[in-house]
Amino acid sequence: MNEKIGILALGHGSKLPYNKDVVTGVAGLIAKKYRNVVVRTGFMNMNNPTMKEGLDAFKGTGVTTIVAVPIFLAHGVHTTEDIPQILGVSREDRKTTIKLDGRDVTLVYSEPLGVDELVAELAFKRAQEALSSN
Amino acid sequence: MNEKIGILALGHGSKLPYNKDVVTGVAGLIAKKYRNVVVRTGFMNMNNPTMKEGLDAFKGTGVTTIVAVPIFLAHGVHTTEDIPQILGVSREDRKTTIKLDGRDVTLVYSEPLGVDELVAELAFKRAQEALSSN
């Protein structure tokens, strides 16, 4: 069976629209850039789809593995405790199996964005934009 | 007078070490990648240096303009209300003048990271890393 990868972009959720807008926007860019991957979103609280609804949204897509990627800058209590609990993964193993369309699908939990050249580059770009608009 | 740019990488702050580690790590990467820029950090709460201490840390560097860049993924009440208030910038103008070493220094407040191809690329990289370690 061919591997087909799904990415569940996990958001914190917020009463304000910004967090959902960013997570949804980033998910859209992932889907556009990596066209062989099925991308869905799920929010920890305050927004829909919830994380469980996000997993359900892979039904009918034929994905064999889903990677849940926290669209969070850094670890914190949400990424180390709350989200693993909702996903049913342990902090050691970071992997479980779920049922979708009656089939076993591997669910893997990734690291958040963290320290990376790409974040440094983006922060510098935001600084340049602010300078050029002032 | 030649322009000399400072970047103040603004962090949320946290009781856990992760947020400070990421903001400090990203600030280090900015300084390494863009060597003509003076980079300092400042945290909104719970960590040091505070934002005001971060601004003071540009003393003696000769910067003529400082851009405060929120190392936040999305806007929220902190980036739209709390941080502008601490920096003394309005939401419309996003710019003020501060005194450093007895000179006027322009302080500009930038957008947070937001939706960008670079975030999509990094999220995909984290997904790939999780897949290859499982």
List keywords for this structure.
homodimer, 5-stranded mixed sheet, Rossmann fold, 24% strand, alpha/beta, globular, 134 residues
Describe this structure in words.
The structure is a homodimer of 134-residue chains. By secondary structure, chain A is α/β, with parallel strands linked by helices. Chain A has a single domain (5-132), classed as 3-Layer(aba) Sandwich (Rossmann fold). Helix content of chain A is 37%, strand content 24%. Chain A is built from 4 helices and 5 strands, in the order E-H-E-H-E-H-E-E-H. Chain A has helices at residues 18-33, 51-56, 77-87, 117-132; strands at residues 5-11, 38-43, 65-70, 95-100, 103-109. Chain A has a 5-stranded mixed β-sheet with strand order 2-1-3-5-4. In chain A, helix 1 links the parallel strand 1 (5-11) and strand 2. The model of chain A has no long low-confidence stretch (mean pLDDT 96). Chains A and B meet through strand 1, helix 1, strand 3, strand 5 and helix 4 of A and strand 1, helix 1, strand 3, strand 5 and helix 4 of B.
